[in-house]
Amino acid sequence: MFLSPQDVLTIVGKAGPGKGKHIVLLAGDEEYRSEEAFPQLAKILAERHGFTCTVVFSLNARGEIDPNVQTHQPGIEALDRADLCVMQLRFRQWPDAQMKHFVDYYRSGKPILALRTSTHAFSYPPESTSAYRAYGFQSKDWPGGFGKQALGENWVSHWGNHGSQATLGVVEPSQRLHPVLRGVTEVFGPTDVYEVSLPADATILMRGQVLTGMERTSSAATDRKKTVQGIEQPVNEPAMPIVWYRRPTNPAGKQNEILVTTMGAATDLLDPGFRRLLVNGTYWLLGLDVPKSASVDFVGRYDASPFGFDGFKKGVKPRDLL
């Protein structure tokens, strides 16, 4: 493993099917600890499967990882040589010089694996003069911005009760043989289900069963809640999608293979089924044969912090993660 440049974490792939492929992981959300999950995911992909991975963080003026800094993602130019972008971003408003690297990657038609808050990855105030303000989740010029237009949804609401109702991901019966689900029977995470309304071109791979509590053994919730249209429905009938893919045409006329999951807290990564889903998705998006049973064992120690605002580990620099 080596660090190059100083602001990012790069892990060179060992032997494996991913040898020669470069994955860039963008960590930048204030709540779900992607700055913890993505280095571990990068280690798994590099050391277990051979992918070279670069993790790019939100940094403060001292060069420390600080997800509350929404305006600085140094090292994002790594996307210029990436084969896959894995992202977990929230309300970012980067300078145009940094945002250009992301937009150029997206417009090139390369694949994207998007987690949790990436549905509302970017946010620009109404007075913004940025050339990329249409990517904001509240955009009117490009309705719903990058989240709605590329991923299929932006921020709507918590469908489960945040912090008290966990998620059990169950396979969509019609997609049980899809390569992304190879070896995945269910996934569990303490994050709650997001409300989504997907376009017709989205293929749902898993739905999120809202649980009554925060344990895997908690029963399925049966309460009702109103949708944004004011129509009541049981929370799990049908359950909201939590994993889907689509192949939309971007503004440059290219099509991106896009896989989305609304799960993604650092604590969700403790679930081996969820790790396998992400590893399988990486293979699939890169056009590689998905293993029958991908290795998803942790590399070294992994201590996941609970999700929450201002819960990040302060004073950490990317080089400290080697």
Strand order of the largest sheet: 1-3-2-4-5-14-13-10-7-8
The total count of strands amounts to 14
Instruction: Tell me the number of helical segments per DSSP (H or I, 4 or more residues long).
Output: 4
Report the helical percentage.
Answer: 10-25%
CATH architecture verdict: 3-Layer(aba) Sandwich
What would the principal axes of the Cα set say about the shape? globular
- Under CATH, the topology can be stated as Rossmann fold
Please supply descriptive tags for the structure shown above.
alpha/beta, two-stranded antiparallel sheet, about 325 residues, 4 helices, Rossmann fold
Spell out the blueprint of helices and strands.
Blueprint (H helix, E strand, L loop, with lengths): L7 E4 L10 E7 L5 H16 L2 E6 L26 E6 L6 H12 L4 E4 L29 H7 L5 E2 L8 E5 L14 E4 L4 E2 L7 E8 L13 E3 L5 E3 L5 E7 L11 E4 L10 H14 L37
Parallel strand pairs: 2-3, 2-4, 4-5, 5-14
Antiparallel strand pairs: 1-3, 6-9, 7-8, 7-10, 10-13, 11-12, 13-14
